[in-house]
From TrEMBL:
<dbReference type="GO" id="GO:0010945">
    <property type="term" value="F:coenzyme A diphosphatase activity"/>
</dbReference>
<keyword id="KW-0479">Metal-binding</keyword>
<keyword id="KW-0378">Hydrolase</keyword>
<protein>
    <submittedName>
        <fullName>NUDIX domain-containing protein</fullName>
    </submittedName>
</protein>
<dbReference type="InterPro" id="IPR045121">
    <property type="entry name" value="CoAse"/>
</dbReference>
<dbReference type="InterPro" id="IPR015797">
    <property type="entry name" value="NUDIX_hydrolase-like_dom_sf"/>
</dbReference>
<dbReference type="InterPro" id="IPR000086">
    <property type="entry name" value="NUDIX_hydrolase_dom"/>
</dbReference>
<dbReference type="GO" id="GO:0046872">
    <property type="term" value="F:metal ion binding"/>
</dbReference>
<keyword id="KW-0464">Manganese</keyword>
<dbReference type="Pfam" id="PF00293">
    <property type="entry name" value="NUDIX"/>
</dbReference>
<keyword id="KW-0460">Magnesium</keyword>
<feature type="domain" description="Nudix hydrolase">
    <location>
        <begin position="40"/>
        <end position="179"/>
    </location>
</feature>
Length: 220
């Protein structure tokens, strides 16, 4: 099941357009974020958690530890692979978010499920779960071996044209959106998803798509 889980009128007005826009989406909306190619991908989920902080609407992000075997040091949404005991993709997303950031699931209201997307590097078939942080709780890097930092990043900062550009990996055809905000460099799957969500939510501002920078980041 994909699409809204709640009545768009039951969420804050700034979040309602995104809930409405989640209805009827398929993976093609997400451009380079393609669906799995067969049965070899492992099921996973990420929690895209929207709250309201001191600087207005925000989203919860983390930076992965530099010592991890894959996606080391990269900025990501809380999430990971499904466990047998999870209650579907929502259960996976909430469990992983609690394990990685300490967020209290009791204060989180899932509001929409997006189409499953494929991450070739890790061979995960990832389902993004959108949620509203109704009752915010303290967050932190629970296990430094997995998570280096946790941050609530303002939507207005992500939408700021000065914080947006594209990255190109030399020697490849890869080109994708990226952000530099609050000391975080966001690219890859996370930046691709954020870029689409800014558009769907009506938060996107005009930015320079011709600002393309070489990606000087080791991908593992």
């Amino acid at each position: 099941m994909t699409g809204p889980l709640v009545d768009p009128g039951s969420v804050p007005a700034w979040l309602s357009p995104l809930v409405k826009a989640s209805d009827g989406l398929d993976w093609r909306v997400f451009s380079r974020l393609t669906p799995p190619d067969g049965d070899s991908a492992r099921s996973a989920a990420v929690l895209v958690l929207f709250g309201e902080g001191a600087r207005g609407p925000d989203v919860l992000l983390l930076r992965r530890a530099d010592t991890l075997g894959s996606h080391a040091g990269q900025v990501a949404f809380p999430g990971g692979g499904a466990d047998d005991g999870d209650d579907g993709v929502i259960g996976t997303a909430l469990r992983e978010a609690e394990e990685e950031t300490g967020v209290d699931p009791a204060g989180v209201r899932p509001i929409a499920i997006l189409p499953e997307l494929f991450v070739p590097v890790s061979r995960f078939a990832v389902t993004p779960v959108l949620a509203h942080w109704q009752t915010p709780s303290p967050v932190r890097a629970v296990d430094p071996a997995e998570t280096a930092a946790v941050a609530r990043v303002a939507i207005s900062d992500l939408a700021d044209p000065g914080n947006r550009f594209q990255v190109h990996r030399p020697g490849t055809s890869y080109r994708g959106p990226a952000f530099e905000v609050d000391g975080l460099f966001v690219w890859g799957f996370t930046a691709g998803l954020l870029s689409v969500l800014l558009s769907l939510g009506g938060w996107e501002r005009d930015w320079d798509h011709d600002d393309v920078r070489d990606l000087e980041w080791e991908t593992r």
